[in-house]
Amino acid sequence: DKRHGKGCVIYKGNENKIAETYEGDWFEGKIQGKGTYFFADGGVYEGDWVDGKMEGKGLYKYLNGNKYEGDWFNDMKNGYGVLTYVNGEMYEGYWKDDKVHGKGTLTYTKGDKYIGEWKFARKSGEGELIYASGDKFKGEWKNDKANGFGILLYSNGNKYEGEWVDDQRHGFGTFTCKEDGSIYSGNYAFNRREGQGTLIFLDGIIIEGLWNSGVLTKVTKFQLAPSSPWNDPDL
């Protein structure tokens, strides 16, 4: 008396109203093979089933317009798949137990794009974030933010290479200014130069000093450019 082969089953809820519907293959009383399931929350799954669970390849359309197409295991997104959001965002990559996990690419509505590693739906590991503005960050991530070593290439040609904490330049870093070719190497705190730092200009002038909230407050060493006539003590 077990369902076997193709068939349609209607599940009724309160007041004898149709709650959920399944159309597709059965094997020894269980949903198995290919079939379409209409859920009570408005979602629709069309794809492979194993032992009564979504498993294999399948397409899930959510009531809000989002849709996922890819691998399933144990009724959850597992493996490779693409989730397209109704707002224009799209994730292409790997999943674990319904969460973004592993390598993947997320394209945001405004055009920003993250390509890299994820851990339980958060950016974690090595990754690159390409901003719609033209800025590019490549480096280490933790808990959805830049944490560790990373390089930020600004759209105007400037470059920061160094340490990050929670999306801010924090720790030791080197900043190259495209406008005049000068290079700052030193400490940062909360996105600004802080503490000991050295500024080297293209003509060879070197300034070492202390910085406070991005401002040079004390010069501890000043070195003229090698070509400067003031290097001649007899001038």
From TrEMBL:
The keyword Repeat applies. InterPro entries: MORN. Pfam families: MORN (PF02493). Keywords: Repeat. The keyword Repeat applies. SUPFAM superfamilies: Histone H3 K4-specific methyltransferase SET7/9 N-terminal domain (SSF82185). It comes from the Eukaryota. PANTHER family: RADIAL SPOKE HEAD 1 HOMOLOG. This is MORN repeat-containing protein 1, putative. It comes from Plasmodium malariae. The gene is MORN1.
